[in-house]
Amino acid sequence: MQEINKKSFSQERALFDGNGLCVVDCEFDGPGESPLKQSRNVEVKNSSFRYKYPLWYSSSVRVEDTRFYELGKSGIWYTNDIEFKNVIVDAPKEFRRCRNVRLENVEFKNAQETLWTCDGVELKKVRATGDYFAMNSCNMKCDGLELEGNYFFDGGKNIEVRNSRLVSKDAFWNCENVTVYDSVIIGEYLGWNSRNLTFVNCQIESNQGLCYIDGLKLVNCTFTKTDLSFEYCTGIDAEVKGRIDSVKNPGSGIIKCDEIGQLILDPAKIDIKATEIVCPKIGERLVGTTDPWID
Fold first, then answer.
1. Which burial class, exposed, middle or buried, applies to 213 when counting CB atoms under 10 A from its CB (0-12, 13-18, 19+)?
2. Strand, helix or coil at 274?
3. 113-118 mean pLDDT
4. Other C-beta atoms within 10 Å of 237: how many?
5. How many helices (H) and strands (E) would you count in the chain?
6. 3-state DSSP call for residue 72?
7. Residues near 82 by Cβ (< 8 Å), separated by ≥ 6?
8. Most buried by CB count within 10 Å: which residue of 70, 260, 274, 285?
9. What does pTM read for this prediction?
10. Which residues have a Cβ under 8 Å from the Cβ of 50 and sit 6 or more positions away?
11. Which residues contact 133 (CB under 8 A, 6 or more apart)?
């Protein structure tokens, strides 16, 4: 492997089409772009990127202890078999249409539109701030993920999340086959228009959360500040510990909990017998058009 050590690059396509490179303590800074485009079998260590499109159409890339500054935006597109470890990314729109992506101890300071349409993604101890993270990506495994923004995982498929904290409006919309374990999810309108969502040992806080879902399973979860939940959900299998502030017009299934503050059922909208409610304490029942939320 050819070692390139302590160099500074500013020109267009500085290491274009490189094969078998070990880039150490280098700076990519200047008016150029695409410094490692079309590269293969590349290692990058203790380096920095300050211009755009650094790793397009590449394969078998390992990046460690490196920083992608804001000008290094749209940095990794159409690249396969890539591993980041101990990396800071200031730039948005990183990782598009990539396959086999492994990220460990990576921080995305501006994660807007990052990890779009990727397949085969493993995230471990990743922190990200920004909207539309991991849109339309599939076959993802996440452990120790900390996300803050909105619209995470929109359109995603086959996603597993563990030991994470997700703060997001409209998280997991239009998804299919998602399982979340031992995590905290905070944000309104959680999970709408999705299929086969499972939450195990999770703490959920969501205004109008978990609605319009086909196939929803909750195991040993707790709800805080979660109201108007389960609206038009079908195939519900929910076990919630403690109180649910309000449940509105569930489509079908079973809901088990300790307390419901307000149960809203409108036989003009749903078959109220299609959902079994197992709850020893229901504060208020609204049946029919007395529901002020029905428009």
1. buried
2. coil
3. 97
4. 14
5. 0, 28
6. helix
7. 55, 58, 60, 61, 62, 63, 76, 98, 100, 101, 102
8. 260
9. 0.93
10. 27, 28, 29, 30, 69, 71, 72
11. 108, 111, 114, 115, 147, 149, 151, 152, 153
- Whole-angstrom distance, CA of residue 165 vs CA of residue 251: 29
pLDDT, tens only, 192-251? 999 999 999 999 999 999 999 999 999 999 999 999 999 999 999 999 999 999 999 999
The secondary structure of residue 187, as a DSSP letter, is -
CA pair distance 53, 211, nearest whole angstrom: 39
Please report the DSSP string for 94-137 in residue order: --BS-EEEEEEEEEESS-TT-SBS-EEEEEEEEEEESSSTTTT-
* pLDDT score for 105: 98
Question: Under a CB-based contact definition with an 8 Å cutoff, are residues 190 and 206 in contact?
Answer: yes
Task: Report the pLDDT value the prediction gives residue 289, as an integer from 0 to 100.
Answer: 59
* Helix, strand or coil, per DSSP, at residue 70: helix
Q: What's the rounded Cα separation, in Å, for the pair 153 and 155?
A: 6
pLDDT of residue 32: 83
* C-alpha–C-alpha distance, residues 17 and 187, integer Å: 44
As given in the structure block, the two tokens for residue 112 are 């807007």
CB contact at 8 A, 282 and 263: yes
